[in-house]
């Protein structure tokens, strides 16, 4: 009926009860009318039609409309839609009474409806009401209400509705009106409005109309000087304070301006909650998360080495944008709790995330959960986490290319699935990890399900406890090479699965080329099996004389760092990091770290980028903006061993924060760059 020319006074509103956008006030309106069936249509607030009817519904509706269209209302109303000084949607109604109102308990109702598509052309997405006090002929009043703007809405698809209705008796609607935005209207949106320094804010012009605007001028720090002239700029706030933000837009010689006082707040303390973005610094920590954290799509959060994050009250650290927590070759990043938190959960991220040289402990719903995302999980301490239906340490779902390497995964507990790593429909590379003293109701170390095919190379898997052994395999085909797996029960509980195992030491033995069944002769293993025994301070290196030394795959691609034949276990091949938890073998060879240094930094407009290679390698050097978008490739070629220097001239780029990514083989390093013009 929305297009029926005979229904010019018809204002359709649909309260949706479910789906992606359930309407606010759904239950309240349903209770008001005593809804007993769906669909339930109300006309004028007191005439109703319940149920379907197919093609007969139109005739029923038009009949109701025709009964009401000629009624004379005692209320005249003019409705407008705009933005208030806080950037929220403002619904305003100017009202004049042309007759006396005899009903009682009257209210004015404010509504925002959204034209999502042809099926949902009038879904209620904003709903509020207040008392309506006018009763006598000639009285006038102005009523208004502000609704927060949702980034998912297109402003041109929104309509404001206001109506006067009695909440007693027959609930009659005395008058209603609607309006959309008109003219040139400046409006401000952003990915985040508050947080600790350094706070990265992506500003968005949500002005009207959506097309045709020719100029944008932004004053983002309230100093009266325009800082940016692009449509959607990004600004980094490093100084605590409250900042007014102004946007001035122009089109065809006309201009409109809006200023929102105190729109951005940069806190002095490191308390974080809600949407987060920017850079977290070690000298501001510890950061305290008192509620859920969200890195939104398009946002980037960089956590610097040495930063401590304390998450409380069951907080979830959810990443849908990009997280770079990379402290390799520096002081470790710590994620912990003094009560409980649910873990770092990366879901549907389209970016390359990094969790490296971090301590993650105390989570109750998988310490690191990766779903349909890319993430490097390298050189982390993942310990004393718990769970039930997920892997207590790491949970993977629908991930294709992910690297899990150099992690110590110890003393995690799951009442249901596994204390170590769980995966469903995944193809990860898992190498040089120590997975020890985990306890679970199903599998102590690994749960591998639903067409997963991980490649598990040079891992030490020992002293884990699970009802079904170390590994649960369901409809999957894992490959184990050069591993040590010691279990007091079964190694594999395999359902519709056949693991490929080569050059590995398995308790109980296993068929396959190069496999052995011996005591690995760890230097100082934990005193027993399961999470009640300390697997972290145990030493899982091999004593001289161990039959696992030089017993791995003889292919030179698996050679140890000293170029001898591969030793089985986590300390062979690419080696295992020294976490400083035990007395390490002085002869353990640690590879030279891959480092990148920028000088000067901050810079204008050029900086020199230096890196050192212990051996010849292919190297790529890329620059990313604060949104995680790659903006320039500085190098992508073969370099000889030694020191190298490349200059980046950023004369064509705006002031701000950038990130340099150095990649060589499986290693990546990031360096923050600050361009100040």
SSE layout and pairing:
Blueprint: H1 26-33, E1 40-43, E2 47-50, H2 56-68, E3 75-83, E4 89-97, E5 106-114, E6 123-131, E7 140-147, E8 158-166, E9 173-179, E10 188-190, E11 194-195, E12 199-205, E13 215-219, E14 234-237, E15 241-251, E16 254-266, E17 271-275, E18 278-280, E19 287-295, E20 300-303, E21 308-311, E22 315-319, E23 322-326, E24 333-336, E25 341-347, E26 352-356, E27 358-361, E28 368-371, E29 374-378, E30 381-383, E31 386-387, E32 394-397, E33 403-405, E34 408-410, E35 413-414, E36 421-424, E37 429-431, E38 434-436, E39 439-440, E40 446-449, E41 455-457, E42 460-466, E43 471-474, E44 479-481, E45 484-487, E46 492-495, E47 500-502, E48 505-506, E49 522-524, E50 539-542, E51 596-599, E52 606-613, E53 617-625, E54 630-639, E55 642-649, E56 656-664, E57 667-675
Parallel strand pairs: 11-16, 17-19, 18-20, 19-21, 19-22, 20-23, 21-24, 22-25, 23-26, 24-27, 25-28, 26-29, 27-30, 28-32, 29-33, 30-34, 31-35, 32-36, 33-37, 34-38, 35-39, 36-40, 37-41, 38-42, 39-42, 40-43, 41-44, 42-45, 43-46, 44-47, 45-48
Antiparallel strand pairs: 1-2, 3-4, 4-7, 5-6, 5-8, 8-9, 10-12, 12-14, 13-15, 15-16, 49-50, 51-52, 52-55, 53-54, 53-56, 56-57
Regions with little confidence, pLDDT below 50 for 5+ residues: 1-5, 584-592
Tell me what portion of residues adopts beta-strand conformation. Answer: 35-45%
Quaternary organization: single chain
Helix content: under 10%
The shape, in one word, is globular
Number of helices: 2
- Largest sheet geometry: 22 strands, parallel
What's the pLDDT, averaged over the residues? 90
Number of domains: 5
> What is the C-alpha radius of gyration, as a whole number of Å?
32 Å
Kindly name the structural category: mainly beta
User: Using DSSP, what is the number of strands?
Assistant: 57
